[in-house]
Amino acid sequence: MFEKFKKNLLSNDRDLRYMALSDLNSDLEKKIGLFAIFNIHKKQIVRLVLQKLVDSSVEVCSLSVQSLEILIPFIDDSLVKEVLNEIIVSVFSNDQQLSEISYLAFHKILNKINYQQTTILTYFSEHLIPEIINHIEKNNFSSEKLKLFDLIKTVLMKFGLLLCLDQEFLQKFFMKSLQISRSQKVVECLCEFLSLANDEIFKSTIEIIIEKLIYEKQIVMVQQYIRTLKEISDIVKNKLGIFLNRIIPLITKYCIESKYKEENQLIEICIQSLERFIYKFPKYTQQYYETFLILFNKLLKYDNGNELEESLSSSFDSISDFISTSEEENSMKGDDNCCSEHTESVNSDNTSENSGETDENEDLDDINSPWKVRRSIMNCISTLIVSSHKQLIKNFKDIYNLLVYSFIEKNNNICQINYKTFFQLLEQLSIMNLNVQEKQLIKKIVERNIHIVIQHFGQVLSNKRTKFKIIAIKIISKLFQLFSSLLDEYLEQIFLGIISTLDENEIKNIDLKIETVKCLTIIILNANQILIHPYFKNIFPFILKSIKRKNHRVSLTVLELLQQIPLIIRNKIDSLSNLNYQLFDNSWEIISKKLYHIICELLRLENSLPIIKKLLIKILSTIISYLGDILANELPYTLKLLFSFLTIPSFTLTSIQAFHTIVKSNIKFSIKVIIHQLIEQLSYFLNSSKKELIYTSLQTLTLLFQKHNFEINEKFSENLLIKISKLINNSDIHLTLISINYVTSILKKLPSIIDCVLNIILPNVYSILTNPLLHNLSIILDFFRELINYDQEYLNFNIFKQPLFKIIECHKIDTETFLIPKAFISISQILAMLVYESSEEIYEQTIEELTEKITKKDIKISSFAIITIGEIGKLIDLSKYSNLHLLLLSLFESKSNLIQCSASVAFGKLCCGNLEYYLPNILNFFKQSENFQYLIFKSLKEVIQNYNFNNTGMIINHTNHKTTNNKIIMNNKNNSTNSSNNSNYYYTPNNKNNNMKISINNNQTYSFNENHLNLIINLLFNNCTNEKQGIRKIVAECFGKLTLIKPKTIIKMLVKEIGNGPTVMRHTIITSVQFMIHKDNTTIDQVLFENIKHFYKCLSDEDSSIRLATLKLLNLALQYKPILIPRNLEDLLPLIYQETKMKKDLIHIVHIGELKNVIDNGLENRKAVITTLDLLLSSYSELINFSEYVEVIINFLLDINTDIICKINKIIIKIIFIRPLMIKSNLKRLLENLKSILFRNLSKYSIRKDYQQHKTMINSTLSLIVKLSSSVEISNSVLLSNFYDTIINKDLSLLEQLRKIESKNNNSKMKMDFSNYNYSNQIFLSRNYY
């Protein structure tokens, strides 16, 4: 068999040679045929294959390379060395074909060598690399031998840290190569070596390059050294940062000195290197930002025929001097000529366009073209803008004026970059959290030159090409979002430009059309509504014309704009209503009808796309809801048209939503023409299996009964209630509450159905009261209130009391718990409301019954009675029962935890009825009973919490009570049907029944006075250092809630103590700030924003528990309060990143016999900081420097905790989708850390849980590897392929797991979307942000 193979391989027939190699490859892969005799003849086979590298047939040569790649795993190391020697000799050959084939073979063989072949690694270090270097030097670094640097680089990349290299020898060689050769391959090879070199070699190399830069006189060599430093910054990360204070002055010197004035290529390289340093090392470059801007100002004014100034001192003191000077000159000439220079620039560009666009490409091949310098400067400014928000604010004036000055640019290539940079500046402003002073300052700076900006981009819209118009439209949109008040006087000019782009005869680009319509939407939402109306009437015909375009993208965008139009028309009509607008200006009525008719016309078209028809239905409903009174004659036809879509399945939900919009309108118009058919159709949909359809139908029916007067058949209502009763159950609480709200609406409209409600609905309502998911009681309370107010002789309190108590008796609870059952709270509030709405006799009788039940031995009933007394006491002053509060305080001594907790909460609510009477009792009891301090604080928390809800209108505001016929009456501002997001709903009394005779002292005070506040604050501060952690936590919560009452005073006290107080107090204060942050509460946001920096400083505290509390505070702010995120986040990021490191002083090992238990006191901090990093990436990615962020994340993978590693893997997957190139630049370090995770060994003392967590960690890591391989930017990396070879060679089981994860991902076909915001969020920014 071997002889036959040898004969064929040495044959003169090309096909036989090719087939021999092909059979060899196939047999070795399948382990058949030649594989059986391979060990006997392996040396001969390898040598024969090597010979075929030199063959007359190119196909045979290529196949021999593939054969060598397959042979390597089957031969020993000594034979591999021989193969490599032969190939290297062939690479050195002067025969170009042989050299190239051998070069390819070397790379293929290298991929098959694994990290465990130590003899091969030694061969690389001691023989191969020195031999390659020797050959390069012998040939005097000729250009033909430069590809050998690629071989060295490939070896260093794969085996760098495993090689025993003579680093000093390599350093001398590479520095010599750098001086002799100008090739980029030399620079790349040097950078790869420096990434592996020790600190001493790295520092000495940089010192040599800096010294060469100082004394070098050849321009070409200066370029080479600066380019090398730029490439090094990509490889070695922060190592180079400490040298920048010497490098940057040298680079700026070469940009400025006049002797280099003709070397534009050198200046371009210098600017590019500065851009790279700004991006990679923002910490080290911030001090030079002002210097950079002055330098850029000088270079932008430089042209090919002009000389640079000799020094920076001869230039303007700042860039703004030039702008202000030009402004003064322009003001002397008059406003009409103030932008002549910019206009000439635009017109000249347009002229060049029409003449063949020669200026755009005339300098493309000239390496010294000055336009390339200006391009580099703009790219550098763009990087500077995003690198540091702090520096951007500080230098905004110079950056803004410099960009405005750049509008005089005549080269179209640079113009586009200039505009994009200007847009990026505006975009950064929109995402930054600025205080009021900074916003005003920026507004003033922009205002000075806004006329130049608007006039310039107005000319761009008139004359420039499509790609320039698109960016101009985006800039105008962003200006309206940020500075709409500054643009009022330029509306005419802006609208003229928009009309020119909307004109159907001129428009050629669909993207421009879409961007124009989006811009118009933003203008409509943000501009002054009074000023915009005249221009809107002129542009409206162009908008309507755009709808009929065949392109659906344009149609959808225009239709989204039209959704905003009815509101604009309504506002204008309302503003003219006092002047009889029909006589004064009936053009708005004409516009309304035009809009209406064209929407109806489009809706009748049968060939429209479903998505467009759905949008048309929504627009038509919006038109009716805002303009129904104007379209009174057309309304019957329109309503019937919309009703016709209800029976079409694909449009049913959209049509119901449209009717919901119409019904909730505040405009007076009649819908009687279809109201009965609509109710019947909506009732039919209640039987649907689609919950969303049922939700929307119920909500629409509820609004119909609440807002429209019509007659309804009682029998029909009863049949409807039977359907509704099936929806009231425990399976879907949300649907249940909507259904009950609907029943309440019907009951108000048709009281005669009360018996049906009692028999069919009420039992189902009772059944849901014990549901733990019932967090919103507003609708339930309204339902019971409507029942008891129907007729108290027919429906008295006792009818409801017995079923409610029976529910409590049947409800099973844990009597030893500290938590009050949710059912107790819900039913007690219902009972309290029923008592309040009943007579005085019922009220007194109920208090007596509840007092008796408290003394019973049944813990469950006693606890419920206690809570009910508290709820009643919150609504009615019970101070006349002098022993009631003493009874509650005595229950603090109960042996039952549930009784103690219930009494504490009830006493706090009881105090709300008469704060002046009960608050001293709380404070006195606290001093007398040290054993019950926790319970007293819990009562105090109830008092403070109820006071806060009172002031926000969420419960009774005791200061707003009025007494009519001895009954408390409340001004209820909130609609009783509205849902509340709070865990407890607090009943708001109704003033319908005025016959109650409860004696109330009208002179009592129901709010905190200064004395109350001082007493409580002193009590809380005295217990900030309480030895019991539970008390400290509830003190923190009280502080957080109390701050809502006196924000400035209390926060000022907390800030004072946070800097001077002991550790325990600081921890309590930081925890209290956490309770101040709530997504629905904005009352103290401004005060918190001004003082939050004092609390964030605790991230640098020595105590880990305080740092943990601060991290939790920061996480809450990131999640719920973006306003509290400081604009100078870069000051916090180093402290955040510091928490990712494992601190040895926080890790302790406890020996339990032979077992070792590791106690990691820093684990919670690291888990909290993961949440911080994740939130920063998801919502605040524009505030972070990705280079530092990714480096921190990758280093975090070295953590010992498996949960942390799994979470970090998920963050890296997000980064792959958001910034794949950033992962690619850090791929080497990432793969090293992943490899250490995959081959991490468990301790011999590990338990079953450890093995499960380890398995989860491995699966998470493999999922990350799959994501890496699926990324287009990363998948082709040599590092990744080498990584695959390594892990598979070491553990084949990992390959099987990888395949399973890949197949699972392919089957799921899930896509991830990490976009920070979409267009719909973008255009609805608040008006007049500045």
TrEMBL record:
Compositional bias of kind Acidic residues: 356-366
Entry keyword set: Repeat, Ubl conjugation pathway
Annotated ranges, domain TATA-binding protein interacting (TIP20): 1124-1284
Presence of keyword Repeat: yes
Parts forming coiled coils: none
Keyword Translocase on entry: no
Region (Disordered): 328-366
Comp. bias regions, Basic and acidic residues: 330-344
Alphabetical list of InterPro entries matching this protein: ARM-like, ARM-type_fold, CAND1/CAND2, TATA-bd_TIP120
Highest taxon above the source species: Eukaryota
Comp. bias regions, Polar residues: 345-355
Family affiliation: Belongs to the CAND family.
Protein name as it appears in the record: TIP120 domain-containing protein
Organism of provenance: Anaeramoeba flamelloides
